[in-house]
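MODEL INPUT / OUTPUT PAIR
PAIR INDEX: 1
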Amino acid sequence: MLPVRRAAPIFTLLIAGGLLGACSGGDFGRTRADMRNDDMHKWIGAEATASVGVRPSQFQLTDNERQLRDLAYPLIEPPHSRPAWKAVFGDYQPSPSPWRQKVAFDRTAYGRALIDEPHRSHASRYAQLIDDVRDDITRFEPFFASAIRVIDLDRKRDASMKYMTELSPREKADAVARMQENSLIVQWVQISLEQRVSSYRWALERLVLQAPDGMAAEADRLITELASQTANPPVAARPFIERPLTTRG
C-alpha cells in the first residue's frame, strides 16, 4: 500500500493528466493541436464548390493552392471584436460560403458586437475598429499576390490540356473542377471584403453617433483605403456563377 503522504501528489497528477486530455480534445472551442495540419483550410474549396453544386476535384492541393486557402481564411472569417478569452482559446470555425441560400449578410453584426462587448472606454472601441480594418489592409496584398499566381497557373493548365495525349475524362474533370474551385475562392474573398467595408462603415457611424471622438477620422481614412483596394483588386477571378447580392456601404 502506498504511504498516505504520496497519495495527494499522485492524485494531483491524475487530475492534471485528465485536464490535459480534455484540453487536447478541443474544449473551450479551441482548435485541437492534432487537427492542425497543412491542409486545415482545404475545406474552403470544398465548401465553395458544394454551395454551387460543383463536383469537387480529387487532385491534391499544390503549394500555391494551399497558400491561397490559408490566406483566404482570415478574410472570409466574419470580422468581429474578440473578447480576451477568445484571443487565448481561439474560435476557429468553418464559414458558409456566400452562395448558401440561407446565408443572409447582416452589415450591423460587427458593429453591434463591437459596441455591446465590454470595453474600458469608447476609445478602445475605436482602437479595435482601427486595428481590424488595418489588419484587412495588411492581408489584402499577400492574398491577391497568391491569387495572381494561382489564376495565372490555372490559365496555363487550361491551355495545356488541348495538347496533352491520353488525357482521360476523369483527369480533365478534376482539372476543370480545381480551376473552378480556385476561382470561387477568389470570388468569395472579393465578396467578403465588400461586406467587411460595409460592416466597418456601419460600425463607425454608430460609434460617432454614440461617442464622437477624433479617432473617427483615422478609422474613416482606413475604411476608405480598404474600400478603394476592394473596388480595384489587382486580379479578378473569371466569373463562374452570378455573384450573390452584396451590401455596399
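PAIR INDEX: 2
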Amino acid sequence: MKNTSMTYHIDPVGFIQSPYKEKFAVPRQPRLAPSATSRLKLVGEANSPEAVRGIEQFSHLWLLFLFDQNLEAGWRPTVRPPRLGGNERIGVFASRATFRPNGIGMSAVELKGVVQEGNQTYLELGSIDLVDNTPIIDIKPYIPYSDSIPDALGGFAEKEPDVLNVYLSIEAQKSLSSHPQKAQIEAVIKEVLGQDPRPAYKKGKADNKEYAVNLFDLNVKFTVDSNSITVTAIDRF
C-alpha cells in the first residue's frame, strides 16, 4: 500500500512587489486592473540571469503562488463564490477560492521584461491579482497553442464582472495632485474600486459605510451607492 501521508517542502523562487498592500480590494483575476503593474523579485538560487535566460521569448507567464495569508485558516470542501452572490455553495475544486487544501493559486500574467540591478534579478510584469510580498513557488511560460482554448466553458464565471463608475472627490484629487505616480495611481484606484470590492451580499446595493483600502503608499477611503463609487479621501501612510 502506498504511503498517502507524504509531505513536501517548497521554497519560494521569488516574491511579488505589487500595489496591493492587503487582501481587501485585490481583483479576483489578473488583467481586471490593467494599470496595476508589478514586479517579481527572484530569491535564492533562482535569483540568477541564467534561471530566466530565454524567457523574453514569451509574452505571458504562469505564476504558481501560495495564498500565504490563508494557510493557517484551513479549508472546507465547499465554498461560496462571490460571483454567485456569496450564498450558493459549490465544491472548492469547482472554484478559485483562496482557502484550498494546499493553498496554491495560479495566475497568467504579462511579461514586460527582465531587469538586472546589481546582483538582483527582477521580472517586470503586467496586471496582477496578488498581494504585495506573495511568495511565488514556480514560473512557467504561457504557451498559446496549448494553454488557450477558445471554445472552453467558463461555468458561473463565463463573463467579466460588471464595473461601477468611480469618481474622485475634490479633496481626494487635491491629495493626489502632487504624487509622483499620480496618473498610474488614479487609474489603478478606478480600476480596482470599479470592481466593487465589498462583500458579495452588498453588491448592487448602497450603504452608509465609508470603506478604506491600502494601495501603493496610500490609504484610499470611499463610499458606494447603487451604481457608482466616490473616493472621499486619500492619505499617505
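PAIR 2 NOTE: DSSP finds three helices and twelve strands in the chain.
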